[in-house]
C-alpha cells in the first residue's frame, strides 16, 4: 500500500482551492465494514441491503435485520450511513421470493416496485431500519424510482410503520433522511419534481448507463461496449445536480463512475456534493480531489461546455 495514500487518512477531503467533498464507501454488508473503516470512509454512502436476503432459504426476520443495521451505524460512530432498501430482482434474486419468471428481469418486478407490491417484506425492513436509526445517523435510500407517486407511497408506508413503533414505545431517530436513487432516465427527467419530495439524491450510474445506453450491464463484454463517459450520461448528471440544488438538496454519485479518476474533475465541476465508491477506491479518489484546483472559472466553464456542447 502506498504510504502517501495512507497519509491522507484523517485529513479533510478538500480541493486545492478549499472545496470540501465527502467520499463515502459503497458496501455490500458487514463483511465490507472493516475495509470501509480501514480506508477512512467519510461514512457509508450506499449499503446494498440485498446481502441479508441472498444465499438463504427464507426471509430474514426483523431482529436479524435490526442487528445488522445497528452494527453498521454503531461501528460508523456517528458518521452518516445510507442504507438502500431492498433492490431484489434482475441480477439479484432468491428462490423463496417466488418471483414470477420474466422475459426481461432487468425491466421487471424489481426493487421499489416489488417492495410496493409485497408490503409485508418492505414493512419488516423499514421497521428494522427505523429501529436502528436510534443508534446513529441513518438515512434511507429507495432504488429504481421512476415516479413521484412511488415516493408518496413509500412515505405513506413509512408513516404507518412509525405510528406502529410510537404506539409500542419503540425508539427511532427523529431525523432519518429519505433519498432516492437516480438510476433510470425517468427519474432524471422528473428530478425537479422528485427533489421536492426527498432529502437527497444518489445517482446510480451503473443502472443509469444500462437504461440510457440500452446496454445490459451483465453482458460479459459490457466494459468493451460501453463508451466511457458518454455525453448522454454526463448531461443527465448535470441536469440532476442542477435540479437538486435549485430545490436545496444534495447529490451523491454512487455508481462505478465515481471511482474513475479521469472523471473526478468534471464531476466536481458539475457540483456533485459527494462520491461513494468501493472501499479500496476511497483514498485514490481523495488524492485526486486534493490535486484539483477548481477556482479557475474559465477552465471549469470550458469543462462544462464540453459536457453540454454549445
Ligand atoms: C448503480 O446502479 O449505479 C448502483 C450504485 O447500484 P447497483 O450497482 O447496486 O445497482
Ligand atoms: Mg442500481
UniProtKB/TrEMBL annotation:
GO MF annotation list: kinase activity; metal ion binding; phosphoenolpyruvate-protein phosphotransferase activity
GO-annotated cellular components: cytoplasm
One BP term from GO: phosphoenolpyruvate-dependent sugar phosphotransferase system
Chief site of localization: cytoplasm
Catalysed transformations (reactions): L-histidyl-[protein] + phosphoenolpyruvate = N(pros)-phospho-L-histidyl-[protein] + pyruvate
Source taxon at top rank: Bacteria
Active site (record annotation): 254
Residues covered by the PEP-utilising enzyme C-terminal domain: 5-293
The keyword Magnesium appears for this protein: yes
Family: Belongs to the PEP-utilizing enzyme family.
Function recorded in the entry: General (non sugar-specific) component of the phosphoenolpyruvate-dependent sugar phosphotransferase system (sugar PTS). This major carbohydrate active-transport system catalyzes the phosphorylation of incoming sugar substrates concomitantly with their translocation across the cell membrane. Enzyme I transfers the phosphoryl group from phosphoenolpyruvate (PEP) to the phosphoryl carrier protein (HPr).
Protein name: Phosphoenolpyruvate-protein phosphotransferase
Full-protein positions shown: 248 to 557 of 557
Amino acid at each position: 500500500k502506498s504510504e502517501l495514500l495512507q497519509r491522507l487518512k484523517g485529513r479533510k477531503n478538500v480541493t486545492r482551492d478549499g472545496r470540501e467533498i465527502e467520499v463515502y464507501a459503497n458496501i455490500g454488508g458487514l463483511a465490507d465494514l472493516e475495509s470501509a473503516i480501514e480506508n477512512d470512509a467519510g461514512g457509508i454512502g450506499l449499503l446494498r441491503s440485498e446481502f441479508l436476503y441472498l444465499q438463504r432459504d427464507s426471509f430474514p426476520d426483523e431482529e436479524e435485520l435490526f442487528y445488522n443495521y445497528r452494527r453498521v451505524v454503531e461501528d460508523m460512530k456517528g458518521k452518516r450511513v445510507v442504507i438502500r432498501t431492498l433492490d431484489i430482482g434482475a441480477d439479484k434474486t432468491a428462490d423463496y421470493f417466488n418471483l414470477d419468471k420474466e422475459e426481461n428481469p432487468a425491466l421487471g418486478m424489481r426493487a421499489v416496485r416489488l417492495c410496493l407490491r409485497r408490503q409485508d417484506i418492505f414493512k419488516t425492513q423499514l421497521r428494522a431500519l427505523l429501529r436502528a436509526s436510534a443508534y446513529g445517523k441513518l438515512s434511507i435510500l429507495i432504488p429504481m424510482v421512476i415516479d413521484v407517486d412511488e415516493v408518496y407511497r413509500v412515505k405513506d408506508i413509512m408513516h404507518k410503520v412509525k405510528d406502529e413503533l410510537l404506539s409500542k414505545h419503540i425508539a427511532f431517530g427523529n431525523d432519518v433522511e429519505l433519498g432516492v436513487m437516480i438510476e433510470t432516465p425517468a427519474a432524471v427527467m422528473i428530478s425537479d419534481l422528485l427533489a421536492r419530495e426527498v432529502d437527497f439524491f444518489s445517482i446510480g450510474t451503473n443502472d443509469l448507463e444500462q437504461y440510457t445506453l440500452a446496454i445490459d450491464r451483465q453482458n460479459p463484454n459490457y466494459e468493451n461496449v460501453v463508451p466511457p463517459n458518454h455525453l448522454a450520461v454526463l448531461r443527465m448528471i448535470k441536469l440532476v445536480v442542477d435540479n437538486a440544488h435549485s430545490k436545496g438538496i444534495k447529490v451523491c454519485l454512487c455508481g462505478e463512475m465515481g471511482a474513475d479518476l479521469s472523471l473526478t474533475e468534471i464531476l466536481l465541476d458539475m457540483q456533485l456534493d459527494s462520491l461513494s465508491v468501493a472501499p479500496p477506491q476511497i483514498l485514490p479518489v481523495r488524492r485526486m480531489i486534493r490535486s484539483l484546483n477548481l477556482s479557475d472559472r474559465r477552465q471549469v466553464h470550458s469543462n462544462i461546455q464540453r459536457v453540454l456542447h454549445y
